[in-house]
UniProtKB/TrEMBL annotation:
It comes from the Bacteria. It comes from Mucilaginibacter mallensis. GO terms for molecular function: phosphorelay sensor kinase activity. It is found in: Membrane. This is histidine kinase.
């Protein structure tokens, strides 16, 4: 069901129930007023009858009946009876006893009584007189009162129906009016497709929830648009990086196959092909690593990695690869609790990230010494990798984490500009942060920080 229908239905249902309760309360009150009014009329009738019959000792019963019937207005279906000590009807009698002894005894016991059976209401009183003690019962049906009550119920029901319809119509109108901006936003949202992510929906007055919704939707669009744009440039760059070495390999092979060559020439071509193949391999490795990181973003599976362990492992690897004492590990501080050296991460990815940084340090310093400082206390784990290489120009410090970005001063160095992009992604995935400090011509400092 649409929200506007649901809103108006809820509102109407609640109001109708409240109204119904009020109307029922009104009917009950009025009914009891009418009834008690009629009881007091009956009570009067019983007293008048008692005075008439019991005080007028000398007049015969027949003539009294006559007077009573003629001059005293009777109530509808009225029955009045006198009962003496033996519960026998006196003064007014017919074949009908009307009330059983139990009722008469009760009136005698309680001195006065009111009760009703169906529509018939009855009042009983006890009356002392010089002729004896009597129980007088007067009863009648309040046709007029019942009819008034009936009319009231009918009128109120009709009113309830009209008010309910009016409430439903009004609340639907209000709901429609209130939700109109949502309809507008929805129809604008429908226009948005991958092809036109630059579209934005109307944000309205900026104060209500609908504006907030529209604002957040626009923010999402902005993110998506940026992400798509990034992806597009990434794909273009990646295919360029893959195609260039392949094209050059094919070209070199074709040229060398043109005619018979000397062994030296073949060797040269093979060497050139090897360089291109290595470049290709590096790009493919980077792209695979990137895919690996991206997969971890969607299905993270973190295990605690002891950072000191990992650094000693890297030390072994780089020592074997570059030479003894080329990778210098400096432990600046360790926490008392070895658990504080654990980082929830994926060991393989963390290794890739740190190796990218160390690899750059060796590469851009032409294998000068690289220092790795480890600082860990109760709150922080900080790994700094410092080299004495060519450095990064100040205006490029921000850009080195972008995909395929390579500094202006690295033309002669092998690479594709994906390394730091992947590294940054990995460190961010493990809730760490990375920063660069560099003096061109002197060296570069890359700091990776994990806050516990
Ligand atoms: N240690 C470093 N010294 C100097 N420049 C660096 C260093 N590390 C990164 N850079 C700069 O950042 C760029 C991006 O690094 P990276 O993504 O690893 O790409 P690549 O190593 O393939 O060039 C490098 O091309 C270089 O300009
Ligand atoms: Mg690199």
């Amino acid at each position: 069901m649409k929200i506007k229908n649901r809103l108006s239905l809820y509102f109407t249902a609640i109001s109708t129930v409240v109204l119904l309760i009020v109307e029922i309360a009104i009917c009950i009150t009025i009914n009891s007023i009418i009834k008690s009014d009629f009881y007091s009329k009956l009570s009067d009738r019983a007293s008048v009858a008692a005075q008439l019959y019991l005080e007028a000792d000398e007049i015969s019963a027949d003539s009294l009946n006559h007077v009573r019937g003629r001059y005293l207005q009777r109530l509808p279906d009225e029955v009045v009876r006198f009962y003496d000590d033996k519960n026998a009807a006196s003064f007014i009698t017919d074949k009908n006893q009307y009330w059983p002894s139990s009722v008469i005894n009760q009136v005698r016991k309680f001195r006065s009584m009111e009760f009703s059976e169906g529509a018939r209401q009855t009042v009983g009183i006890y009356y002392n007189d010089n002729q004896g003690n009597f129980v007088i019962l007067a009863s009648a049906i309040d046709h007029a009162g019942n009819k008034r009550l009936n009319d009231l119920v009918k009128a109120l029901s009709f009113l309830l129906l009209i008010v309910t319809i009016a409430l439903f119509t009004a609340s639907r109108w209000f709901a429609q009016k209130t939700l109109e901006p949502i309809d507008k936003v929805i129809s604008q949202m429908r226009q948005v497709r991958v092809g036109n992510l630059s579209l934005r929906v109307d944000e309205g007055n900026g104060k209500d929830e609908i504006s907030a919704l529209a604002y957040n939707f626009n923010q999402l669009l902005e993110h998506l648009e940026n992400a798509f744009e990034l992806q597009e440039t990434f794909v273009i760059n990646a295919s360029h990086e893959l195609r260039t070495p392949i094209t050059s390999i094919i070209g070199e092979i074709e040229i060398s196959l043109n005619k018979q060559r000397t062994t030296t020439e073949y060797e040269q071509v093979l060497l050139s092909i090897l360089t291109d193949a290595e470049r290709l391999k590096e790009t493919i490795t980077s792209l695979l690593e990137l895919a690996h990181v991206d997969m971890n973003y969607t299905h993270p599976a973190f295990k605690p990695v002891a950072i000191d362990d990992l650094i000693w492992e890297l030390n072994d690897y780089w020592t074997a690869r570059i030479g003894k004492s080329m990778f210098v590990v400096n432990v600046l501080k360790l926490p008392e609790d070895p658990d504080k050296l654990l980082i929830p991460a994926n060991r393989q990815l963390l290794t890739i990230a740190l190796n990218n940084i160390i690899g750059n340090a060796f590469k851009f310093s032409e294998n000068k010494k690289v220092r790795c400082d480890l600082y860990a206390d109760e709150n922080y784990i900080i790994v700094t990798i410092a080299d004495m290489g060519i450095g990064i120009p100040a205006d490029e410090l921000e850009k080195v984490f972008e995909s395929f970005y390579r500094g202006a001063n690295v033309k002669g160095y092998l690479g594709n500009g994906i390394g730091l992009y992947v590294t940054n992604k990995i460190i961010t995935l493990f809730n760490g942060s990375i920063s660069v400090n560099s003096i061109p011509g002197q060296g570069t400092n890359i700091k990776v920080t994990f806050v516990r």
